[in-house]
Amino acid sequence: MTDTTKAYFDHLITTGRPTAAESYGYSLNGFRKWLASRGKDDIDSFTYNEAEEYMRTGFGAPRTANNFKIALMGYLKHKSSSMPCDAPDYDVISRKIDQLRRLKNLKIPRVYGKSSLEPEEVKQFLTTLKVSGAPQLVYSLAVMTAFFGTRPIELEKNLRNPKTVINLEDHSMLILGAKTGQLRFLTWPRALDDHMKIIYENCPCPYPGEFLTKHLKYRLKGKSITAKTLRRTLQTQNRVNGVADIVTDAILGHESSGHAMAGVYTDYSSPSFISKIREAMTTDLHYMIQHHLIPEL
After folding, report:
1. How does residue 261 score in pLDDT terms, banded at 50, 70 and 90?
2. Which of 124, 125, 203, 221 is the most exposed place for a label (fewest CB within 10 A)?
3. Residue 25 domain boundaries
């Protein structure tokens, strides 16, 4: 592993992305060894054709191969960001980044299968977690992750980010998104206040971004329920209940809305749009409210 890749992985860790550092490290270290088998000891010496060949043949799953492309581009971007624009290698790295952008992702076959929970299954999940003896913080994180559909690090760390603005009296917040780096508006019913206070008072959690995930894996042995499952559940149930996709995208903090032009021109901070979010999160449009799944402490 070259010093420059190590600097990239350290950067990911210090910016709160340890999971990305691990998966990107696996991809890039494998690529480095593959290049070495071809007589190249420096990962920076790769060509576009070599990156394409490794992406097409070096992985057993399309998603992992596509992750390699993201990792390689991220590494090059990080390296170029630390050098002056007139550095001899700057143009070379910029051209490689442009080439990788044109490298098409492998198609991920869509498997027709259930990947979210029904309301009754959410109830069973929360009950199982509670009787397992999970700490109150873990239980409250699970409840609010199911309610918000947030990425784990957003509640486990970003809730205490200086950019996040939380108003416990108004039951609302502007929280920093994990992927977009943008603030988004979220709100909750008064019945969830105590769960929010517990999370707020105890964050940042140990191993933010992995804290809830690790506890769910330990507490729910044999059940593959993750934060991603709860995220998909909210999106699915919102569609079932007729919530507009662009409103759900705003709640989930999607990097780009499925409605491309609407995403460009919509003012997400307008009172009328905020009222749509409030309606989706504090009325029977939210599946947890509709099915009486709001748990007490």
Report:
1. very low
2. 221
3. 3-101
Give the bridge partners for 186, in sequence order: 173
pLDDT at 193 over 90: yes
pLDDT of residue 260 exceeding 60, the answer is: no
- Cα separation, 219 vs 131, in Å, equals 10
Considering its fold, how many domains does the chain have in total? 2
Mean pLDDT of 47-62: 93
Q: Are 192 and 144 in contact (CB under 8 A)?
A: yes
Q: What is the CATH number of the domain that holds 181?
A: 1.10.443
For position 77, what pLDDT does the model report?
94
Contact in structure between 144 and 155 (CB atoms under 8 Å): yes
Do both 179 and 252 map to the same domain? Answer: yes
With cut-offs at 50, 70 and 90, classify the pLDDT of residue 285. very high
58 lies in some domain: yes
Same domain, 26 and 68: yes
Q: What is the pLDDT of residue 1?
A: 41
Residue 56 included in any domain: yes
**For the residues 16-41, what does the mean pLDDT come to?**
90
In what helix (H) or strand (E) does residue 122 lie, and over which residues does it extend? helix 119-131
91 and 49 both lie in a single domain: yes
Residue pair 244/259 in contact by the 8 Å Cβ criterion: no
Non-local CB neighbours of 80 within 8 Å, separated by 6+ positions? 90, 93, 94, 97
**How far is the C-alpha of 4 from the C-alpha of 213, rounded, in Å?**
30
Instruction: Say if residues 277 and 244 touch (Cβ distance below 8 Å).
Output: no
- The verdict on 127 and 257 lying in the same domain is yes
What is the rounded distance in angstroms from the CA atom of residue 257 to the CA atom of residue 246? 6
For residue 17, pLDDT beyond 90: no
Same domain, 90 and 217: no
pLDDT(224) > 70: yes
